[in-house]
């Protein structure tokens, strides 16, 4: 039986906990807590780090008890200390702890948790886990397994999107069987093409090809990478959109056929095909385009029977044509900037929807109030090509929370250990102000005031220098190109 720890004693980092629970509910202007509404009594968070802390904050505000799960090296982690109960589910490697469905399901049973919020990553888009939890009588706080399965398969999701009349990138409708078929299809579409894995994500299993030779080699390498990363080597080919913008639309859908969109997020500034800086709204999207993107995102969600928070991603070319890329069937890392400009607590909405409540918002309720920017602070060194995490103990850690309009979603505190076993994201720094220029300047001030020192690393061992340079030279230049 898993070891359960009930939290009743005081911790050395109580000042950190007070700071964590001092989140300002006034930013959620559309989401006041309704104490009369029926709700779950206890939720287990099947994750770690900043996203586990984020979910716990909303649960606390709603009066819902929380259960944290953790590996043995995470026993003093912030999410463990914030939760009402904690269960150790195994040793440090994720395959032995945070990915162990049997251990997490046992923790649900042992603690009496009624529902599980998976956060992002780990088991958040695992259809087997969602199914097993449901069969055991628990509730998965996310979309149904059918929707996860359909949208997680890029070939199937493209077919569903086409039927829903969502704008599509020209490409081959089906699986590419081998390298020669890849070359044939690429010539029919016209170079350049994007070769990518059907089950891919996070920039893995993707190659751009500009000629037949690159198509053959790209297919071989992408298929190998897909097989090793996802256990699925099915490939597809589509037209490559050169120098596109990456813009995504947040949607909310309930179990009663209602769907709304919460405006877009600009996610074009990336490194290694992974997002680093996001903003909302996008400076490139006019109102009529926003409306069309939102309507198509909702059409896709309704077509697949979606019933939670989700994100529909689009590629946008220089002429403002947009094309469906994929749908992420989970809470996105960058959801706080949408919360800032709309006043909607997306985590609270996910919990309400999972319980069975109808959306308490209409499309006409959703505003764009001001501007928000998010920078992901990673424990990785830009001078070492963003390689392995910069591991070690934080000897000094001060977030720039004295600045008005700054929000920090983090899962660490002074004295925390940065581990090589997990994703090196340590904090999401969010700036919110009246307009874009004011928000960028606020973010620069916040980055300047951020204090990070460690026993092995120092501030330059994080990606903050990279972020500052990007803010200085990229964001403003891309304002309305």
TrEMBL record:
One GO cellular component term: mitochondrion
Q: Name the Gene Ontology molecular function terms of this record.
A: ATP binding; metal ion binding; propionyl-CoA carboxylase activity
The organism's superkingdom is given as Eukaryota
Alphabetic keyword roster: ATP-binding, Biotin, Ligase, Nucleotide-binding
Claim: Zinc is one of the keywords in the record: no
**Which InterPro entries does this chain map to?**
ATP-grasp (IPR011761), ATP_grasp_subdomain_1 (IPR013815), BC-like_N (IPR005481), Biotin_carboxylase_complex (IPR050856), Biotin_carboxylation_dom (IPR011764), Biotin_COase_C (IPR005482), CPAse_ATP-bd (IPR005479), PreATP-grasp_dom_sf (IPR016185)
Span of domain Biotin carboxylation: 39-481
Q: Which parts of the sequence belong to the ATP-grasp domain?
A: 158-355
Entries under Pfam families matching the protein: Biotin_carb_C, Biotin_carb_N, CPSase_L_D2
SUPFAM superfamilies (alphabetical): Glutathione synthetase ATP-binding domain-like, PreATP-grasp domain, Rudiment single hybrid motif
Q: Which cofactor does it need?
A: biotin
Q: What is this protein called?
A: Propionyl-CoA carboxylase alpha chain, mitochondrial
